[in-house]
Amino acid sequence: MSFTIAIDGPAASGKGTISRAVARAFGFEHLDTGLLYRAVGRRLLDGVEPLEAAQTLTVDALDESVLRTPEVAEAASKVAAIPEVRAALLDFQRAFAQRAGGAVLDGRDIGTVICPEAHVKLFVIASAKVRAERRHKELRAAGHDVSLEEVLEDVRARDARDMGRADAPLRPAEDAETLDTTAMDIAEAVARAVALVEARLPAEWPRPASQ
């Protein structure tokens, strides 16, 4: 039996951290679909055609340590706007969503395109300023010399691309619950997300251990 949770939102909204925490709370498998596009973007930077990179992608390529850089993020946003690339990665994501025991997928179009029938859909947002501050802190901690102004500019540019692309633009599903994390710390955001999921979980599924 499967139970699918779709968590979407813009860059640095907190959806990745929330998704991992929700998956741990319920014992579900987790897939950060953004890593798929980052992996394709990384290969683009290496000179590989985007479609070829998407068609030959393997789980081994999803190494966060080499994919969490500004350059790869920029390339990922560009390849994600290519319809053929998105189509090539569609089956991979949908198969993951049907895993027995439950699955959490986070990205930009999970609730609208990848898993429109997901049992729970969350759309995580935060102001551009707060998201830039979060990303800037992460990048500096990882040793990247980048200014807050540069990160804010990048966040806004990615928002424009993600929301403006013709194929699968970033937008909330009509039946998604919006979770605004602007004024929340991570513990508050996770607690709210877990509560939203638990409210829709069938009685036969186990509850979080802390409940």
Automatic annotation (TrEMBL):
HAMAP family, per database record: Cytidyl_kinase_type1
GO molecular function: ATP binding; CMP kinase activity; dCMP kinase activity
Family per record: Belongs to the cytidylate kinase family. Type 1 subfamily.
Single GO cellular component term: cytoplasm
Source organism of this protein record: Pseudoponticoccus marisrubri
Residues that coordinate or bind ATP: 9-17
Protein's name according to its UniProt entry: Cytidylate kinase
Keywords carried by this UniProt record: ATP-binding, Cytoplasm, Kinase, Nucleotide-binding, Transferase
EC number: 2.7.4.25
Annotated ranges, domain Cytidylate kinase: 5-52, 60-198
Subcellular location: Cytoplasm
Highest taxon, organism lineage: Bacteria
Gene behind the chain: cmk
Lineage: Bacteria, Pseudomonadati, Pseudomonadota, Alphaproteobacteria, Rhodobacterales
Catalytic activity: dCMP + ATP = dCDP + ADP; CMP + ATP = CDP + ADP
Main location: cytoplasm
Any GO BP annotation: pyrimidine nucleotide metabolic process
